[in-house]
Design a protein that fits this description.
The complex is a heterodimer. Chain A is mainly β. Chain A is built from no helices and eleven strands. Chain A is globular, with a radius of gyration of 13 Å. Chain B contains no helices and eleven strands. In chain B, the strands form two sheets. In chain B, strands 2, 4, 5, 6, 9, 10 and 11 form a seven-stranded mixed beta sheet that branches. A four-stranded antiparallel beta sheet of chain B has the order 1-3-8-7, with no helix packed on it. Classes of the chains: A mainly beta, B mainly beta.
């Protein structure tokens, strides 16, 4: 079956670094997506990985290891506005997204 | 680019009313759009995949006669919640993606539906 696993909740301190992990199992693989969702709002696209390695985009980076079925989202220099849920989603061979339940990130001053 | 517009943002109505939600891709043509529902503090749940010019594909447990989906053009999909009841109150979100390979889904702003 298809499955995405990520932690339910994480807490970090303003200015610090946090890594949110995601493991995936999909029928075929066409990439791994990360989205940010603030409370009461729709998700917004953050990053996409289809090849192994690290993709950096400002304070956010995303890593993929296809052999391990593993990805992480790295957030640096955390700001209070980064408090949100982070959704990991794998794209299967039919280009359908399989969604994780999301990781709620709580930033403390 | 890849902007998706959803309307209305908020709906409050009486039990038994039917409610229509529109989802438009503003700067691209979307052969496929997706409808999600999210209850408070819960995960995003895919309800159905909307295909332009054909019937929608519903996820298991979603009543197709209750949630009518129409995707009559390449830029518009509509979801109609028929005879809505308080248990249908939720956050409904649509998404669409550029129909080329492994493109991300882009979301509308969502519709908060409250049935009294």
């Amino acid at each position: 079956g298809q499955n995405i696993d990520q932690p339910t909740e994480m807490t970090a301190t303003e200015g610090a670094i946090v890594q949110i992990n995601c493991t995936y199992q999909t029928s075929g693989f066409n990439g791994l997506f990360w989205y940010q969702q603030h409370a009461g709002e729709a998700p917004t696209f953050l990053s996409y990985n289809v090849l192994d390695g690290l993709e950096e985009k400002g304070r956010f980076s995303s890593f993929l290891s296809r052999s391990k079925g593993y990805s992480y989202l790295l957030l640096k220099e955390l700001q209070m506005k980064d408090s949100a849920s982070y959704l990991c989603a794998g794209m299967d061979s039919n280009y359908q997204l399989i969604w994780g339940a999301g990781t709620k990130l709580i930033i403390k001053p | 680019g890849a902007v998706v517009s959803q309307h209305p943002s908020w709906v409050i109505c009486k039990s038994g009313t039917s409610v229509k939600i529109e989802c438009r891709s503003l700067d691209f043509q979307a052969t496929t759009m997706f409808w999600y529902r999210q209850f408070p503090k819960q995960s995003l749940m895919l309800m159905a995949t909307s295909n332009e010019g054909s019937k929608a594909t519903y996820e298991q447990g979603v009543e197709k006669d209750k949630f009518l989906i129409n995707h009559a053009s390449l830029t518009l999909s509509t979801l109609t919640v028929t005879s809505a009841h308080p248990e249908d109150s939720s956050f409904y979100i649509c998404s669409a993606r550029v129909p080329r390979g492994n493109q991300p889904q882009h979301f509308g702003d969502g519709t908060r539906l409250s049935i009294l």
